[in-house]
Amino acid sequence: MERHAHTLHTALSLLSHQVHVFTSPVLPQELKLETQQGSTSSSSPHIHFHEGEPGRWHYNKASEQFLEESQREKFDVVHSESVVLPHWLAQNLPNLAVSWHGIALESLHSGIFQDLTRKPTEPISPDFNRSIQGVVPKVLNEIRFFHNYAHHVAISDSCGEMLRDVYQIPNKRVHVIVNGVNEADFSQDQKLGQECRSLIGISKNVSLVFGVAGRLVKDKGHPILYEKGQGW
């Protein structure tokens, strides 16, 4: 389960909603750390780990747990992250919402802009060639089957626009809910900031702004920022 999903589920639990999460197993030390941090309080989501190798998702095992739990009490809303549930299984679930944390068109869009940073005399990298050829069929497949879902929850305005304008999902079925930030975990740390300045040799009276957000992957555009930063 990704961190932002855990933040969302915990926030819903704190609002007195009963939340059950069905996810892949984790390493014992990770589970122990979560317990030590107090994430298993009465206000926390009920997390169901299916059997198997840590970090490996098996939808059939999670589905069995879900069906068993729903026998005790029916769920009002079911939330699935991207394609963790195949359509033939998901189509039988009422009130199903699917959130997409990155769609194929976003990867294609990022790849195009990434290649535009290439110098005119620089050849196209083989990795980019392979990725661009592989992502186009994914975009076409997504456009074809996205209409099978009742609702789409995008985590950015740009993703929502792509779903409406390119994937042609009706407006009433696309919802934009921007990723939440737990301000108790993410706040200013003056000491850490000064240590960073000292480490890279920047004086205290100079303003320093980093325009970085998201994971350190090419889809977020970090290589572009890194390239520009080399000229500082």
Automatic annotation (TrEMBL):
Pfam family, one: Glyco_transf_4
Start and end residues of each Glycosyltransferase subfamily 4-like N-terminal domain: 1-183
PANTHER family: GLYCOSYLTRANSFERASE
Domain of life of the organism encoding this protein: Eukaryota
InterPro entries to which the protein is assigned, alphabetical: Glyco_trans_4-like_N
Name the UniProt record assigns to this protein: Glycosyltransferase subfamily 4-like N-terminal domain-containing protein
Species of provenance: Prunus armeniaca
